[in-house]
Amino acid sequence: MNNMVLKGDIAFTPTKDIMEIHKNSYIIIEEGKVVDICNQLDNSYKGYLLKDFTGKIIIPGFVDLHLHAPQYPNMGLGLDKELIPWLDTYTFPEEGKYDDLDYARKVFSKLIKDLWRFGTTRSVVFSSIHKESTKLLMNMFIASGLGAYVGKVNMDRNTAEELMENTKKSIEDTEEILKECCESDLVKPIVTPRFAPTCSEEMLSKLGELAIKYDVPVQSHLSENTSEVIWVKELFPNSKNYASVYDEFNLLGKTKTIMAHCVYNTDEEIDLMGRNKVYAAHCPYSNYNLSSGIMPVRKYLDKGVPVGLASDISGGNSLSIMDIIGGTIQASKMKWLESNKELQPLTFNEGFFLGTKGGGSFFGEVGSFEKGYDFDALIIDDSSLIGLNELSIEERLQKIIYTGDDRNIIERYVKGIKIEEPFTS
Ligand SMILES: [Zn+2]
């Protein structure tokens, strides 16, 4: 039995336009799921473990829809470059190191510890091309108690020599992971062509087949940067556009799919994503750092495309979804100006929704405290941030997102289990 009651100021966003707030209330958890929120506790919950967080805020855990685990040591490096030179100078040499499992273990334990620290309870992660270190990363996530999708990267052209895969071997390695690593409830594999330019047609076609055969989701990159879009046009002259390259190979929504960046998609491509229910992972910091551009998030929301937020480590320079929620709202304001005030900037509520339920819905009923949702939660002590004026809970939440940091997160839960700091010894 895993039944408990937490008391505190509860806040979550069931939709992008609504913030539900329950001041000084009780949230009831049974078997890891939310069953009710009430302002008085009746006798039926008598035997439940009661945790009293009076004066603290209880919010859903954050969700990061796109990051590269093997790039973690590079976070903050080379960010004065554009995408392709940055990949060649920093990223590919670092990603070449992950046939060394001892090195991989050191990097992954630091990354997972920091995800925990920043309250990211679920993430969707690129590993490298290496099969064994990908399995190691999955096992380390399982040991931590945090939720994740983890993908072994596939690349068989247009990359550094040490990362160039043999197509057949790459597919075999991927299939081995899909067969072996589906046991965990919280950590699962995901098919991960790096992006169209580094995959042959044969590779893309086989990956699409694997995703369908094993019914696993897909992640990749799409329309991050203008030179990349031109390059894809040259490499796939018969495809209508960049998004349709993935679509033609069953990698755009046949199974659940995330495409990172989506800065330069045409309206036609956005419509296609909407029809196929493909998630867009918005990476505002990475898009600034690599001079990629600003994603028109409002357009995606208006067209019904599911959107979540992402750190895109190490194109991005912060693992904190709190920072990224603020950054997302700021980016949307710049886009509003750039669009002659056509694309409305995001509200605070919308930013918070994208960092919790927006990305969380990729995992199922995650990222909110509606009935039946997994209780993935953070307990926030904002006493260091407030005190000068009386604030509403929503205003306190704004302070937390814009001026707080990991020190304000005092407890983390995934599916009703309190997650302790991983890999401390
Ligand atoms: Zn990326």
From TrEMBL:
Species of the source: Tissierella pigra
Name of this chain's protein: Guanine deaminase
Molecular function GO labels: guanine deaminase activity; zinc ion binding
Cofactor needs: Zn(2+)
Superkingdom assignment: Bacteria
Function: Catalyzes the hydrolytic deamination of guanine, producing xanthine and ammonia.
Gene (UniProt): guaD
Catalytic activity entry: guanine + H2O + H(+) = xanthine + NH4(+)
One record GO biological process: guanine catabolic process
Similarity-based family: Belongs to the metallo-dependent hydrolases superfamily. ATZ/TRZ family.
Annotated NCBIfam families: guan_deamin
Pathway(s) per entry: Purine metabolism; guanine degradation; xanthine from guanine: step 1/1
GO cellular component terms given for this protein: cytosol
EC number in record: 3.5.4.3
Amidohydrolase-related domain mapped to chain residues: 57-416
SUPFAM superfamilies: Composite domain of metallo-dependent hydrolases, Metallo-dependent hydrolases
This protein's record includes keyword Zinc: yes
Signal peptide: none
One Pfam family it belongs to: Amidohydro_1
Cofactor: binding details: Binds 1 zinc ion per subunit.
Keywords: Hydrolase, Metal-binding, Zinc
